[in-house]
Write a structure and sequence with these properties.
The protein is built from 12 helices and 5 strands. The chain has 414 residues and is mostly helical. The structure holds copper (I) ion (2 copies). One copper (I) ion binds at residues 39, 46-47, 56.
Amino acid sequence: MLRCRKNQAALTAAEKSRFVAAVLALKANGTYDQYVDDHRNYMSSAHRGPAFLPWHREFLRRFELDLQAINSLVTLPYWDWTVDNSPTSSLWADDFMGGNGRPTDGHVMSGPFAFSTGNWTLAVDGPALRRRFAVSIPTLPTPSDVTNALATVPYDLSPYNDSPSLAGFRNTVEGWRNGPQLHNRVHVWVGGSMLPASSPNDPVFFLNHCFEDKLWADWQRMHPTESYLPVSGGPTGHNLTDAMEPWASRGSIVTPASMLDHHALGYAYDTEAVCRPKFKFFDDPKLKFIDDPKLKFFDDPKLKAADDIKIPAFDNPLDPLAGRIQPAPFVLSTPHHTLAWSRILPGALESALAQLERQLREHQGQIQLLEAAQARGTLSDADKQRLDSLRREFEALLAEHDALARGGAPMSRA
Ligand code: CU1
Ligand code: CU1
């Protein structure tokens, strides 16, 4: 199942608090600091070469899966720093990343990652999270920086390093070309804890890299005939089928080749068609009849091709064609048609989402218990079947939740 990563500026308050809570939970159980260590200890596997993008794709995906094990509804948000480019952007509010560091020592004093909360003590280069917005460099990259990068081919060029004159896509996005630009410039602009190799200490690290990951996906779509380079002849760990560290040493073979298709890894970005709402909702006064018990839904084969679109219709006894189904002048589609009801009953969308979230939490809890039993080797055959069916139900509920959440925005009038 494909999950959609959203622009952080489009997150609801609930989505922000879910993300923050899951990050804090990973910090509390020690997992978060392993990401900081892996990033510090494998700098040359991950940077200044072609594997910059695939290495961080794997790093982020593992992080996202760990967050989802805490709360299945979380996906990684990305920060489009060409738009949200000010120290007062909502990104830096106290309900999300928290703000700039104080002038004296750069310590972040507010929000969930302030040292004073007791929840965010840095194990290395700490103990307090530090930021110094716009001190080392005054501005973030611009929309034309991104446009130019996306137009750049090929993927990379010999000698596959960090030379300021190397004009491939990877070196441009990483930011060494006439640098610091793009990715590097963002680290420098945030400053403080984002500068050293321990930069994942600042959770905004993941939002920055998620945007570079999106740019790579965008670039791949724009240049379908361009491929990852090099196949060979690059630094160790950076060739197409080289096993990347630290995962290789831990028995897991991850290569740049295995990172090329982000959909195969289980996610997409909110700007992709696959993540956009898949129905039209016509704002029609006749919708008030939608709770008529005689209402029926049927498939229109013409629309069926486009998507799972249903036409609501109802039997009208006053109609000359009484007894025959009359299509109503609107179409919609959503799992179980929950959205249709949500339009006429105030708060129904929120309560439908809340109900699904409750069910998802229950399923996740039961799945985790059964998985623990499986890990101990004490899972009965009946429980094994129960686990399989719980997982299937969980996927279906999650798909319904995500579709409903996507369709939550008002649609255009017919
Ligand atoms: Cu990195
Ligand atoms: Cu980075």
